[in-house]
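Appendix B, Record 12. Input sequence as logged:
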Amino acid sequence: MAKYTGPACKLCRREGEKLFLKGSRCFSEKCSFDKRSFAPGEHGRIQARQERESVYGKQLRAKQKARRVYGILERQFRRYFGVARRTTGLTGLNLLQTLEMRMDNVVYRMGLADSRAQARQLVTHGHFNLNGSRADIPSMLVRPGDVVAVEESSHKLPFFKELPDYAEKRLCAPWIERDLKTMSGRILRKPERAEIDGNLSEQLIVEYYSR
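Logged structural output:
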């Protein structure tokens, strides 16, 4: 499975804003974006002074930002867009809802991981199940009524022993019903637009792929 393995902070610098790809580190003094907020590369500082984006540039940046927030490569993101376009309703909203219903994102939205990258790793290592069956594919999509829970065998691990206390301090998405005692969550419904990252511009993404 292909994935981006480069510096996460470089992605934030390229988009010109924090994407919170490293969880709590992004809120600390160690955050690289606070020290170097200009774009990476030899001409990063010059671009910051001379930036005049075209319409295409804005559409591209919107698409790249969404890809990087959810940690998805281009081919898979394009496939999600194709599915969203064939689904009844607003294409942009369908796309964002599909991304939100990914297994790794659900674990993150439940507050059981510090970042989507950590959630992806936990899922890949087989620490979660879906409706009682092992689920180790981060990209698998959940549906309303599904139950995501920590594997029984993983409850004994130090990380998961401390997880309830850690997760209690984190908000859970309103479209998920969380139970910290069993470290599980039930998907109540698909998220509404107001419950998804407001910095994402789905309309520009639709325009980009509709060129």
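The chain has two domains: 8-99+198-209, 102-187.
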